[in-house]
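Researcher: Re-running this chain for the archive, since the previous output was lost when a drive failed. Same request as before.
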Amino acid sequence: MEIEHRIKSKSAKQLLTAQRIAIFVDVQNLFYSAKYQYHSKVDFSKLMKYCVQDRQLIRAIAYIVQSPDIDQSGFLNILENIGFEIKSKDLRLRPDGTAKGDWDMGIAIDSIAIAERVDVIVLISGDGDFVDLVNMLKSRGLVVEVMSFPNNTSEDLKRAATYYMPLDRNVLISSTRTAATDTSRTNSTS
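Model: Regenerated structure tokens:
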């Protein structure tokens, strides 16, 4: 479903093009959702186009957790060429042997920091930990669009969003494409 389908009048369509948006992508959440739900990988170029449409992009940030033994430089270059700013941190190993790597707090801080400069926050994650953030951003008058793969998305997050927009095969790498936008090197546990 495209955003434009919700817009019926010509003046409303003009408002759409005047919207200033910021996009925040929880890459690990997105990667694992596509992998387990569709056995595929995300095409971040398609994802960017789907999010932006005819609106004015103010900022797009992809949040990455890196494992020290995996070189993700090619993937990071692809994201930067598409127009994403990269925020990266290393996967942390706990004393008990488990691993931790997430950007929940970073995404929250960045979205709050830009709230006064945009009309729409696009959060690409299915993580229910973002419900309070979504509610706070909406209370400031922002439209919050949550995009994610539906089977891997918190029902509370879907309800909290101004608009929940399920992602589907349209944002995945087609079988005829090369794995140039392959995120299989992304490795973390949240």
